[in-house]
Request: fold
Amino acid sequence: MFQRHPKPKKEPERSRTLRYLILAAMLVPLLAIARVGNLWPQVVVAALGILAGHAYSYYFVERPSRMVRAVMFVAVHLALAWMCAGLAGGATLPQAQFAIFAQAITSFDLRYRRSLFNTLIHSLANLYIAASLSRTAELGLYLLLFAGFVLAAFFVAEKEDGLNGTRLHPVTGPASPQSSSSPRRGLLLFGLAFGLATLCAIFTAFLFTPRFAGRPLVPPFTINVPLRGGIKAQIINPGVPLVQINGWSDGASDYFYGFDTNLDLRYRGGLSNEMVMYVRSPSRSYWRSHSYDFYTGESWGQSDSTLTPVPRRRRVYFELTPPLGSPATAEPAQGEQQIVQSFTIAKDQPNLILRRIARLKFLSSPKASHATAATACACRKRSRRG
Reply:
């Protein structure tokens, strides 16, 4: 019937050259994460832990300690708690910190060659995390270094297996069809198990990999379908859904209320340095639309958005800098001042309806005016814009 063959005894890995190459391959992704994520203290601690783990695994390869394995079990759960606390407290890349700390902890149990090669998969996941955060070609250098060390480790392992020789077993009788089919069945089971493990690893890496809020993995896209629908005169909402079909509207949308004290990058995308408007003025002035001083991970905001009322009082006035080329006066002019400023729109701006150029006069409130912090105060003046 069925015969169960005893499993071959695992031989501990005693090759120093192979361990050195795998150690170098493990340190390359740590350097990449430190460069792109600015996690130098965490990477230094993880690198020291990996060095200590490799040394322990080599010198105590014949007599592992159960106490060390118990400490590893507790340390992995502490690293997981550290990641959860970082996610709740807004730490820098808590998933990446958990990945490097977990590899440092598991490096204390690298007794066999299979364990050494499995930790290379962990290093590849760390390199993928660095790739998701990098926007330069510097990551290609780390990828080449990692691939070089891995290929060198494979070469050394294959060479040492060849030097050890092949054991020959005498054949007592003709091979039966059942014995010839058992290797195929074993390969099939191994392929299925490896495929399922790979799918689980891909899903886990996708779940814990940090991503930019302004650059989603699946960007919004539009499907052009010839559908008949009525034409509505309305402003298109910039907060587009993930999938949009032209000509079909269900009347529901995620409204975006323009630029205020909060700039949500999930709807607006990333910020750029493109020039959108030019202002030409004969008077020296400081122009600013909005100022944001802190980032929440998904949006930019203002730490102080309060309005300061400036009441109208006697002997209190606001002075505009005289235009360039004006004659110098001994005393500042306290009467009405007029300046002409021109605005040139270099790029269409969302949430703004542009119309033809026209002259516009405006007066400030006669009772009080408001100004945001760190901006020029509005004053009772008459201005002309063309």
